[in-house]
Structure formats: structure tokens, C-alpha cells
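Entry 12.
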Amino acid sequence: MTSESMNPLMPQLDRPAPEFEAKTTHGVKKLDDYRGRWLILFSHPSDFTPVCTSEFIAFAQAYAEFQDRGCDLIGLSIDSISSHLAWMRNIKEKFGVTIPFPIIEDLSMKVAHAYGMIQQGASDTSAVRAVFLIDQEGILKAMVYYPMSNGRSVAELLRLLDALQTSQKHHVATPEGWRPGDPVLVPPPMNVDDADARLRQGYDCIDWYFCKKTI
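Predicted 3D structure (C-alpha cells):
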């Protein structure tokens, strides 16, 4: 086993997301196809499993909300197109839910390895529950990993997407649990005059360096 396979390179935040071109349930897709829109790429261990099914139903039910934010979804597992299609039909038949986004066939595990979805100790052949939020320029802005045993919160991913888009647009930070409409945290002032001015401009300041603002 090579040192590279023992310690695979992981994608880096605020760097270009790894490029990919792969077969999906919607035809061949490339990362560049999503240029100009946000993208959430997420992996799951296997088709037809209860936890994965619950997640895909939740993603499908929230699909319009992601679209309203200019964000597309694309799933991935180490399964074939045939398996994905059969699973999608099963979800439609059993739960009345249509999966509107593509699912990548990654039998070679090329995409999974590029994104660090294969975690030693969890499995050598299945992707863990990894989530990658990629902005409209193809830059990786956030990544979240879950164990195989526990499902993700789609509501939290929507909240995180809102926070990332707000930070990008307004050059601010967001505090714990932030949701749209809550005050954001503004950057510290650069000098004493800026600090004094801020205290007079209606900011909610605990101190000169900890100020909130509603946008």
C-alpha cells in the first residue's frame, strides 16, 4: 500500500473543489456544469439502506428550497446507475417521492477518493456521509462528515448554505445557530476612529471588537 493511499489528500476549504466528470442518473455531469450556481455534493454508503433512503427523501422534499437559493444537488455512492435507478423507482413507489437531482455512479471510487469520502476504519469500499458545499466559482466553502450510522440534517445544510451565502455577499460572519433575519457579526474595526464611529452608528456592540448588525 502506498503512502498516498494510506494518507489520501483531502480537499481544502477556500480552494478549488476537485474536478470530476462522471456518469449519473441524469447523464454525464462535470463540476464545471455547475459554474455560476452553488452545488452541494453529498455521498452515501449504499443504495436501498434505511438511513440513506430517509436522507434522499428529505433532500428531495427540500429541493425547491435549495433551488430558490441558486443551489443544485448531486448525490454519490459506490453503486451502479442500474442500482440508483432501481432505488429511485422504489422510493417513488413506496413513499411517493421523486428524486429530482442526479446521483453519480462511482464504481471506480475516483470521485470518492478525490473528495476524501472513503474513510479508513469506516469502510474501504463505501463512502461515508460526506457533504461538500461549493460556491458559484467552484470554490469549496464547507465540508461536513457524518458516520455511516447517523443521518444528516437537511435543515442544517440549508441553514449553513444561507450563512455561507450571507457571509460571501456581505463580508460578515455569522454567530452560532444564525438564521436569516438574525444579526450578523461585522469585522473588527481597523483603527480607533473606526471603532468610535461604529459605536455611534447603531451597531449592537458588546465591545468595540464584538459588534452585531442586522442586514
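Annotation: Residues 78 and 107 are 5 Å apart (CA to CA). The chain has a mean pLDDT of 89.
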